[in-house]
């Protein structure tokens, strides 16, 4: 299979515009069957699709392209001494978590990455490919990282790996065999959320079993749960806190307050504020679809994500990022815990912090207490606001100004409170 992929890569380099078509035509089951080294796993026929359920109960379906990448990860791991079944599962869990097993280009960071075969465009920093490896972090060049074989080899690392232990692959992590699988994946990925990886362990197990059992072929559905129709809103069952653990302090809760900048007494704070250092990663609170990604007005940088949770629509909003600290675009599908933006202090803000809103019903829905929502979904243990919901769906934020962010005087060390408020007492 490596030869096939190498040939593909060469073909695509010569003719980038036909790359995606070539992948579709060439990746038929017959071409991806090949022998594994003695003692390793032998990958059989790659099925059209595979449906599996995560630990959190989310059903996901992987297609031929994703399963072909999984086969690459299994075969690469099989050929490296010391990886074993656990190491392969860890690699599958990491790729499922980081990219849903897709080779993701990143054309905003590296326009040329779009010239290589890919299953989508990511936008997290300068991350590329299956394992979301960053050229700037030393993982490899764009050309190397857009090659699934290279990414798999870099993830496993070890003496034969391409990076010679820096950055560290799995085999370069001392004691990885004794760690939990999610913890080991996290040690390689240097991510804030080990439990994100553990969520995909049942899926990784099913992929490994399916691809390495003889006679596999055709659609495989090991779970009786019906496949959810692919739609613009992804059903999400998991909620995470929007900032990494240990980086934040709650500074201003949801509800009525005296406006910290205008001094107006009957203003209503539409979200909850969490002070955090400039540049701290902001994480998507749940799986969903980005509906707003803009830089203007009182919010400054603003990302809004719509989620389907508990059968209903809800949106979360993340404000005050700097313009270059917004890493997603409207229409992007994001996962719980995905790095979507960085903490900043743009718009009506006096110091670096995240202004976090929850809107019941969707992007233009009603503001509800984010602390209570996070608590109710086991993502936080915060004091809850002792007030009824804001109740106005037209409640604007800030001074209503749009366009350039409004500069605000204030000592960032003293006043990290957030003036993103509804300022019209008749409407809030
Ligand atoms: Zn705020």
Automatic annotation (TrEMBL):
Gene Ontology MF terms in the entry: metalloendopeptidase activity
Region (Disordered): 380-428
Gene3D superfamilies from the UniProt entry: Glucose Permease (Domain IIA)
InterPro entries reported for this sequence: Cell_wall_metabolism_enzyme, Dup_hybrid_motif, M23ase_b-sheet_dom
Transmembrane segments: none
Ranges of residues in domain M23ase beta-sheet core: 268-370
Protein name, entry field: Peptidase M23-like protein
Organism per entry: Microbacterium lacticum
């Amino acid at each position: 299979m490596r030869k096939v992929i190498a040939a593909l890569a060469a073909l695509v380099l010569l003719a980038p515009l036909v790359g995606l078509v070539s992948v579709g035509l060439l990746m038929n089951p017959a071409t991806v069957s090949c022998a594994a080294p003695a003692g390793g796993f032998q990958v059989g026929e790659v099925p059209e699709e595979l449906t599996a359920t995560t630990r959190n109960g989310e059903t996901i379906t992987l297609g031929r392209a994703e399963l072909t990448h999984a086969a690459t990860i299994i075969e690469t791991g099989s050929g490296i001494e010391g990886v074993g079944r656990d190491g392969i599962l860890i690699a599958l869990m990491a790729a499922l978590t980081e990219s849903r097993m897709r080779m993701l280009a990143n054309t905003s960071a590296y326009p040329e990455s779009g010239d290589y075969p890919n299953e989508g465009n990511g936008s997290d920093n300068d991350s590329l490919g299956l394992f979301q490896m960053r050229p700037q972090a030393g993982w490899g060049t764009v050309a190397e990282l857009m090659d699934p074989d290279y990414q798999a080899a870099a993830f496993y690392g070890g003496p034969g790996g391409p990076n010679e232990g820096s950055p560290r692959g799995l085999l370069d992590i001392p004691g990885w065999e004794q760690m939990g699988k999610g913890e080991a994946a996290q040690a390689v990925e240097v991510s804030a959320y080990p439990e994100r990886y553990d969520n995909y362990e049942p899926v990784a197990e099913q992929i490994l079993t399916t691809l390495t059992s003889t006679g596999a072929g055709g659609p495989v559905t090991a779970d009786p749960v019906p496949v959810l129709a692919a739609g613009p809103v992804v059903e999400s069952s998991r909620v995470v806190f929007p900032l990494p653990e240990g980086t934040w302090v709650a500074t201003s809760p949801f509800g009525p307050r005296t406006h910290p900048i205008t001094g107006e007494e009957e203003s209503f704070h539409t979200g909850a504020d969490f002070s955090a250092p400039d540049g701290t990663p902001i994480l998507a609170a749940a799986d969903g679809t980005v509906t707003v990604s803009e830089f203007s007005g009182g919010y400054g940088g603003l990302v809004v994500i719509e989620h389907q949770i508990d059968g209903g629509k809800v949106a979360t909003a993340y404000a005050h990022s700097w313009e270059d600290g917004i890493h997603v675009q409207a229409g992007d599908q994001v996962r719980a815990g995905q790095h979507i933006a960085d903490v900043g202090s743009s718009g009506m803000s006096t110091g670096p912090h995240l202004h976090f809103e929850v809107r019941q019903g969707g992007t233009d829905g009603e503001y509800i207490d984010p602390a209570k929502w996070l608590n109710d979904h086991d993502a936080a243990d915060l004091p809850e606001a002792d007030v009824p919901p804001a109740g106005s769906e037209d409640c604007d934020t800030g001074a209503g100004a749009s366009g350039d962010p409004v500069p605000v005087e204030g000592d960032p060390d003293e006043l990290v409170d957030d003036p993103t408020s509804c300022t019209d007492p008749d409407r809030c």
